[in-house]
């Protein structure tokens, strides 16, 4: 569920644009007002503001924001202001261009989005970059990762609830065989993980646990530093419980010293209107502190204010 | 002495030297011979391709009967196919490859000649009809060396703009040539670079690659792929679907064409009638020195022939 708070009386797009325009004018920028407007509007309302801003002032709102804001706060606001599909397209393109085996973004987006959302991302990707997503992923990845990532981003999974339990058992068996023999990159492993429907896969993972003793991810931890194994485990977690997976991404982004702002921004902006509420609940259960508290501790300034405005659904 | 009707009926039910049967002839003879069972009986005795005297009856020969059933059903089949939604058609054909052992070439045809949106539509229809994704079923059922290529082809959602990066195209010519040199003839279909390039790049990009290949190496890529029919077909489908479809049609008409080959005629005519039948007619004329309409008129019969001519945009012969 969404964590956004929307005011009871929503100003018109024109009023919002005026407030934003005023926030940009003169010396300095009124970041508080910008946060106030953008973090309390839904995706449709934000789109309306963008169009209206262009109509009134002849400039893309995102360009103005780019001029006025800086650093992590700017990155976050720009990402937030994009339409959800555009946002995923931008994130995915960024991930592909600087792809490395430890990349998490492609798996996260390819697996947590619905089949139709992923398709929409592929369409929008083509329109923006004049290439297909799978073509870019194929060109920027090599070896085992290419074998895994290309089918993963090309999948158009069946979304029905049907489960073939005989098939689940037999595919659990296949997975067990290859995992035991440490053939993690085997075609069968990749086939099963990248083509089966999510319902079928959940049944398969359950069958794996029942028949073979361990949850499948436990058996995929042979080498904790192995990026390929990490990718496989991530795929499995994103299928079985995406909210828990995303909680971990957030948690790790604020671990120890230093914060991975890109990861934190990405999860919060992409999930605020989807399932951030559930992620928060899991965060609290897992860490005994509220997510808001962790953000307050780990971030500062306008970036912190921005994140809190999205995360905190009980704001005064 | 055989009557005119007997001769006409014999010709109508021979099912030889052509596809389809003369329905209109049959209908008129049925009318003429009403209440004259002796005429039909006499016909049965004379027509021993279909009937053999066994006991006190002229029994139907199974083989010929099968053949006739097939010929009678051609018109029926083409009509049903024509009426179906194009996406459903493609999904059902794909399913026949996967579950009824129809040739993989049909899957390559569908995946490579349809536009990105049409292929997507076929994938959606497949899910609706069969409760699995197309790629899931292809990956599961095709476990041999063709698997990578086929899964890649059906999963593609190719960019359809005209923008081509010529440097990338040229470098991919190198990659293809190297792959061909190093891989054994029967391993080339599994080569990662070959599969990547053919299953992800846009069609305009691939046309540029094929063009540069010829310029650089003096031979067409298809010639160098002659060791693998499916790869050759993939390249042809991507580069020049009209030529490919002409070849399929031509195979249907040749002597000793098998069932799969004759089915190709209906499949191509129905699926391309609204798309590129004009280009196919041109390509056919270039390749075989004959007008498609003429060949259809000569080699097919009855309502089946008439429907093919209509699909080809021609009026009745």
Automatic annotation (TrEMBL), chain A:
Binding sites annotated in the UniProt record for Ca(2+) 3: 298
PROSITE patterns: ANNEXIN_1 (PS00223), ANNEXIN_2 (PS51897)
SUPFAM superfamilies associated with the record: Annexin
A biological process term (GO) from this entry: response to cold
GO MF annotation list: calcium ion binding; calcium-dependent phospholipid binding; phosphatidylserine binding
Keywords: Annexin, Calcium, Calcium/phospholipid-binding, Metal-binding, Repeat
Domain notes: A pair of annexin repeats may form one binding site for calcium and phospholipid.
Identification of the protein by name: Annexin
From TrEMBL, chain B:
Superkingdom classification of source: Eukaryota
Gene3D superfamilies tied to this protein: Annexin
GO cellular component, one term: cytoplasm
Pfam families registered for this protein in UniProt: Annexin
Family matches, as InterPro entries: Annexin, Annexin_repeat, Annexin_sf
Gene Ontology biological process terms in this record: response to cold; response to heat; response to salt stress; response to water deprivation
Gene Ontology MF terms in the entry: calcium ion binding; calcium-dependent phospholipid binding; phosphatidylserine binding
Coiled coil: none
Entry annotated with the keyword RNA-binding: no
Swiss-Prot/TrEMBL keywords: Annexin, Calcium, Calcium/phospholipid-binding, Metal-binding, Repeat
Protein name as annotated: Annexin
